Amino acid sequence: MTKALLLGTTGVAVALAMMAFGFVAGSPEIAKAGTAQPVQAATADTKIDRAEVEGIIRDYLLKNPEVLLEVQDALEAKQKEEQRIAHLGVIQNAKDQIFNSSFDGVVGNPNGKVTIVEFYDYNCGFCKRAIDDMQALTKSDPDLRFVLKEFPILGPDSQKASVVSMAFHLMMPEKYGEFHNALLGGQGRATEATAIKTAISLGADEATLRQKMKDPSIPEAFAKTYDLANKLAITGTPSYVVGNEVVFGALGQEVLAEKIQEAKAAL
Question: What per-residue confidence (pLDDT) applies to 105?
Fold first, then answer.
């Protein structure tokens, strides 16, 4: 990624430099671009050929490589701001789906002032390690509402385990937090079988659970979550929505706590 960005910024620097030297004066491409100031055509005395221009640019960039880093930093900052604005629009337009979906489990304070939403997969190693962060944050902050959004992206086992999970939530929402911690925190790979075993251990009737797993609203909920994740540019787990910000990756308890405080300050 860094190499690609550097190549891109190099191209930008070269293009700007060539324009500055008047090498592209009068070209149709520049005319189409609608430049504010017309470029003077080079005279016979000042005309420089392409090889000379490229040589000058190369020498300049070799002597001043920090220019490329400055351009790269500016490009990254611009892209980050554009993404932030795009995320803000999605969050504002899909607040209920993100923060108040009836299919999502809730731990912590159901009426908390600040909500953090986690997109997770039961077979995500980073999600497994992030359980401690969730438990510590909800324990230390009585105003925190933590929403668990099923986002199975790591194969059929994950998808089947999440079907069981959502069926269990429909049956016994008051015990969903226990189910979530037991399955995500368990050893080995989460599957339909291990999820059913976990549900039964918490008091679910297997026959009723299997029937609930056929509820057509479950795949509909998954489809909505996948669509939402796509709009938020979420491609991995865990990912979080805190206030009006999307946070990617298992960044740790301290970073999430900072984001939560920022969201509180914005209320």
Answer: 95
